């Protein structure tokens, strides 16, 4: 397998860093903001008062009207969630929020991915019907559940769909659909994820209940749910545009102040992070994987119960269980990744060019981990990747990850249009999707998918481009700048954390934790020795004692170990200079 080194380019400035709003900042931070179109920190949108009004989100009036009926008639509501972190936080926020507002009876149900698959299927509706609900509320799913909603209607159960996934040609006939990505919705923050959508519904419902005199005294403060909203938003890797940044920033402030759910605080503890210094990347890389492990390997109910638990000691026990599941998930993933790399190596040994759109399958792969596997392989080969695992009898399930320039959900739609019947079901986003095909159709689908990717992308598109914020002078390698950058976000998808590049003398190198490369480097032409770490390196390549100079793409970070804090370079890419 031969994959070219990335092209490393400096991120262009979108505004002049000499703008009056930036002149009082560290010059590096001013440049970082200017490269993201921010000419004044006031534009970060961190205040709740700056959130877009819920009146712009189509479907909220109808959803609120149906919920008011449920409240006033003391009807039974059942939330139907999803088995990833966004789904778990959406379910928890919906349940906690409705109870805070005074719902008479509300519970939740999350389909087991291995038994029922994703979304409000007819089968999961039949399971839900055993609880005799009057109203089903989907969170983080439902926009493609045509048959499931029909089944619920046939059983006399109303359905409110709250979702954020892209809509297909047909919408379910629910009594209300709240989804910023449905046709005709004017809500401009299209990147709002599932937990953000249900949070908006709760805000509108609280206002309507208050207008009807529902509360005795002060209405409950739904801001208490923002820790979970922040977690779900970061975990789903949606773009952190201004509206999402406000939700995440406010949630982080509550977490840092200790005003978070006991379960979330327990997950922070088992992940080895400090609550008072938590940043968005900690939510994405430390907390979310532990929750996702439950949905990937067992049942997401474990994760949801952890988030719902009021007692810290009981929550800590659950968090430790989730931590063990995450360790198991990592072991499975590493084994699968090694198998996938061997498959890729065989392609290269046969002198075959890698497909533009790459499909991989192994009959022993685990359904719950193929999404992470696809992501890992995509990072190595920089092209759209779909990893498949065995599904129901005669079927295989795929998890797809894409690169900039290829909308994976639309790409699958194009394949389905050209090859009717080839895809049994699919759905997702621009960068991630899921699908089901017949096992016997894998070769035909692989060819069709590759052809569609080739139709949209050129060979040059398969060379990774890394945008950085340029090089740092030696004087900028300081704890003060690292702290300023850490707290200048929140950083996330499409509002990326500051990334720098430079050439260094490699003074020391060794593997720690089996797969991570610990470094000591010195800036070229400088005198300062700096610690660095590169996670998940190819141990067949590193360490290499013959290498004396390297080119690094890195982030400035603060390492905390046994009470000592020191500057550290978090290396995203390392190459021989």
TrEMBL record:
Transmembrane segments: none annotated. One of its GO terms (molecular function) is exonuclease activity. Signal peptide: none annotated. InterPro entries: DDH_dom, DHH_sf, DHHA1_dom, RecJ, RecJ_OB, SSDNA_exonuclease_RecJ. Residues 360-453 form the DHHA1 domain. Keywords: Coiled coil, Exonuclease, Hydrolase, Nuclease. Residues 468-571 form the RecJ OB domain. Residues 76-233 form the DDH domain. It comes from the Bacteria. Residues 308-342 form a coiled coil. Belongs to the RecJ family. This is Single-stranded-DNA-specific exonuclease RecJ.
């Amino acid at each position: 397998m031969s994959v070219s080194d990335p092209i490393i380019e400096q991120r262009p400035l979108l505004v002049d860093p000499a703008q009056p709003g930036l002149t009082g900042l560290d010059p590096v931070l001013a440049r970082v903001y200017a490269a993201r179109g921010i000419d004044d920190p006031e534009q970060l949108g961190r205040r709740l008062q700056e959130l877009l009004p819920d009146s712009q989100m189509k479907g909220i009036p109808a959803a609120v009207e149906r919920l008011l009926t449920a409240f006033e008639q003391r009807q039974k509501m059942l939330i139907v969630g999803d088995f990833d972190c966004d789904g778990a936080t959406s379910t928890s926020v919906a349940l906690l929020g409705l109870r805070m507002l005074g719902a008479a009876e509300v519970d939740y149900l999350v389909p087991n991915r291995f038994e029922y698959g994703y979304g409000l299927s007819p089968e999961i509706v039949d399971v839900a019907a055993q609880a005799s609900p009057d109203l089903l509320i989907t969170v983080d799913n439902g926009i493609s559940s045509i048959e499931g909603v029909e089944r619920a209607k046939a059983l006399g159960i109303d359905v409110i769909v709250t979702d954020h996934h892209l809509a297909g040609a047909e919408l379910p006939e629910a009594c209300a659909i709240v989804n910023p990505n449905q046709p005709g919705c004017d809500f401009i923050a299209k990147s709002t994820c599932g937990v953000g959508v249900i949070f908006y519904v709760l805000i509108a419902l609280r206002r309507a209940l208050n207008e009807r005199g529902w509360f005795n005294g002060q209405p409950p403060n739904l801001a208490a749910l923002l820790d979970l909203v922040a977690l779900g938003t970061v975990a789903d890797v949606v773009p952190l545009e201004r509206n999402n940044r406000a939700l995440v920033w406010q949630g982080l402030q509550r977490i840092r102040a200790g005003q978070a759910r006991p379960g979330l605080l327990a997950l922070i503890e088992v992940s080895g992070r400090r609550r008072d210094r938590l940043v968005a990347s900690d939510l994405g890389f430390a907390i979310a994987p532990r929750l996702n492990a439950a949905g990937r390997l067992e049942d997401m109910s474990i994760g949801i119960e952890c988030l719902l638990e009021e007692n810290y000691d009981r929550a800590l026990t659950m968090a430790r269980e989730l931590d063990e599941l995450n360790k198991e998930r990592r072991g499975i993933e590493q084994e699968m990744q090694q198998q996938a790399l061997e498959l890729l190596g065989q392609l290269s040994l046969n002198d075959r060019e890698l497909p533009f759109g790459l499909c991989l399958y192994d009959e022993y792969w685990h359904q719950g981990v193929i999404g992470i596997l696809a992501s890992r392989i995509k990072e190595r080969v920089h092209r759209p990747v779909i990893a498949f695992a065995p599904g129901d009898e005669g079927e295989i399930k795929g998890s797809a990850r894409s690169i900039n320039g290829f909308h994976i959900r639309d790409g699958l739609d194009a394949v389905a249009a050209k090859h009717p019947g080839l895809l049994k079901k699919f759905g997702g986003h621009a960068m991630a999707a899921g699908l089901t095909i017949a096992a016997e159709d894998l070769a035909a689908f692989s060819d069709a998918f590759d052809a569609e990717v080739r139709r949209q992308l050129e060979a040059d598109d398969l060379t990774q481009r890394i945008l950085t914020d340029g090089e740092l002078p030696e004087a900028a390698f300081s704890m003060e700048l690292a702290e300023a950058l850490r707290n200048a976000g929140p950083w996330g998808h499409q509002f990326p954390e500051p990334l720098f590049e430079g050439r260094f003398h490699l003074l020391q190198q060794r593997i720690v934790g089996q797969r991570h490369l610990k470094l000591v480097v010195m800036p070229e032409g400088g005198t300062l020795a700096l610690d660095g770490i590169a996670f998940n390196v190819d141990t067949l390549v590193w360490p290499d004692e013959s290498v004396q100079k390297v080119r690094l793409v890195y982030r400035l970070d603060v390492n905390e170990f046994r009470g000592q804090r020191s500057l550290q370079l978090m290396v995203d890419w390392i190459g021989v200079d």
